[in-house]
């Protein structure tokens, strides 16, 4: 199995503590955003990234930390209306946020995700919004402010607003054949099984990402901690006999075709090590994954 466990920081109460826990136990990736932890997540990670230079980091651009809104408006990077909305993908704001992110993290991020581009965006404008964002991100890559970029979405793929081929087409238009689009991030779990079902049939975002050479980051694998309470003993016995409900759920996500990294938000060392153990196991067979889909539906 090539799937790896990464730390997601969205639900971490203490980002620095969780990152130290994960890094000291072999984690090679941590995912964050400027608006996480009340706007302090990137700053909290700086000391951990300095202590563990091999630890890679992805962050995001889109949602605006409340504490940074007036600063960005004063700097001329953000309109008052966008500040009020709390989300912006205008090129000037992206450039400003990326410079701030580099300062907050204390280094160049390995990957920057466009964060929920579908947020408060009319359907007819999503392609233009993505293209303009990609132009700004390609410029940042050329200036070595960032290394690469991707798209992190909650419902962009599932709603049909965009697909992976469209993203690759827009990135090629913005940056040429050597564009820097490298990854997608989307929810994959026992609640969000549609991407798994599609991938088993050779279609959908996971399969398209694999074909297009993009890494897939699976977010919310335990659906905010709700999934373990939904896994029956019978289902757990079918998927991963003898394992906990959480481990059972993670086994399905880690086995999904095309998934490269599973992002787990936890500061608990025991939970982390158990998750790392299950993600590191051989993948469940496609036949077993199909049975899970048949049982739970999409």
Automatic annotation (TrEMBL):
Annotated ranges, domain NADP-dependent oxidoreductase: 10-153
SUPFAM superfamilies, sorted: NAD(P)-linked oxidoreductase
Name by which UniProt lists this protein: Aldo/keto reductase
InterPro entries noted in UniProt: NAD(P)_OxRdtase_dom_sf, NADP_OxRdtase_dom
Record Pfam families: Aldo_ket_red
């Amino acid at each position: 199995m090539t799937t790896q466990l990464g730390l997601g920081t969205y639900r971490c109460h203490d980002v620095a503590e969780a990152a130290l826990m994960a890094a000291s136990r072999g984690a090679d990736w941590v995912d964050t955003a400027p608006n996480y932890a009340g706007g302090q997540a990137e700053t909290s990670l700086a000391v951990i990234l300095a202590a563990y230079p091999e630890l890679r980091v992805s962050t995001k651009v889109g949602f605006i930390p409340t504490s940074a809104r007036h600063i960005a408006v004063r700097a001329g990077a953000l309109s008052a209306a966008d500040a009020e909305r709390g989300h912006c993908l205008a090129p000037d704001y992206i450039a400003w946020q990326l410079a701030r992110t580099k300062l907050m993290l204390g280094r160049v991020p390995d990957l920057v995700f466009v964060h929920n581009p579908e947020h408060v965006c009319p359907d007819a404008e999503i392609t233009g919004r993505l293209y303009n964002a990609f132009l700004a991100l390609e410029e940042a890559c050329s200036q070595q402010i960032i290394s690469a970029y991707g798209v992190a979405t909650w419902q962009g793929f599932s709603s049909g607003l965009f697909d992976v081929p469209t993203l690759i087409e827009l990135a090629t238009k913005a940056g040429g054949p050597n564009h820097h689009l490298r990854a997608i991030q989307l929810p994959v779990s026992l609640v969000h099984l549609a991407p798994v079902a599609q991938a088993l049939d050779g279609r959908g975002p996971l399969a398209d990402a694999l074909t297009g050479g993009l890494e897939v980051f699976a977010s919310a694998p335990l659906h905010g901690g709700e999934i373990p309470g939904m896994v029956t003993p019978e289902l757990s016995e079918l998927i991963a006999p003898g394992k906990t409900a959480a481990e059972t759920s993670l086994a399905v996500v880690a086995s999904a075709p095309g998934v490269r990294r599973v992002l787990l938000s936890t500061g608990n060392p025991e939970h982390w090590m158990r998750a790392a153990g299950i993600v590191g196991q051989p993948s469940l067979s496609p036949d077993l994954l199909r049975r899970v889909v048949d049982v739970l539906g999409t």
